[in-house]
From TrEMBL:
Classification via Pfam families: Ribonuc_L-PSP (PF01042)
InterPro entries attached to this UniProt entry: RutC-like_sf, YjgF/YER057c/UK114
Taxonomy, superkingdom: Bacteria
Name under which the protein is recorded: RidA family protein
PANTHER family: BLR7761 PROTEIN, YJGH FAMILY PROTEIN
SUPFAM superfamilies for the chain: YjgF-like (SSF55298)
Organism: Pontixanthobacter luteolus
CDD domains the UniProt entry points to: YjgF_YER057c_UK114_like_6
Length: 133
């Protein structure tokens, strides 16, 4: 577990549930950055206002910030997973995803789920990036 670097987003859940926003794991030739499932949390701990698109934008912004904190960029993203409580919002969330990660064209999964951690959350997103040395 040595040489792993972690970053926090300041989410109250990180301390409460014992996790970090993202972790960079060294590898031969490239490092992996794994970003935890990221909900639409504002700096004050409140949920981002608006619909699925606005919440997805906040999730993606937090993901990119975490990756940048660990020395990567949005262009390094190779995998995303998008969880939606209303799958009918897939076009709106997909458009936001494309804005942030379209140039990288990561392998992506979008799925409908019954619920997320907070009842007002409409979307949660996680990502993985590979940063070459």
């Amino acid at each position: 577990m040595q040489n792993r670097t972690r970053t926090s987003s300041g989410s109250p859940f990180e301390d409460q549930f014992g996790f970090c926003r993202a972790i960079r794991i060294p590898g031969h030739g490239a490092d992996r950055i794994i970003v935890a499932g990221t909900g639409p949390i504002e700096d004050d701990g409140e949920t981002t206002e608006g619909g699925a698109a606005e919440q997805a934008e906040r999730c993606c912004a937090l993901i990119v910030k975490a990756i940048e904190n660990l020395g990567g960029t949005a262009a390094d993203v190779v995998r995303t997973r998008m969880l939606l409580t209303d799958i009918d919002q897939q076009a709106e969330v997909g458009e936001v995803h494309s804005h942030f990660f379209g140039a990288a064209r990561p392998a992506a999964t979008m799925m409908g789920v019954a619920a997320l951690c907070r009842p007002e959350w409409l979307v949660e997103i996680e990502a993985e990036a590979v940063v070459e040395h």
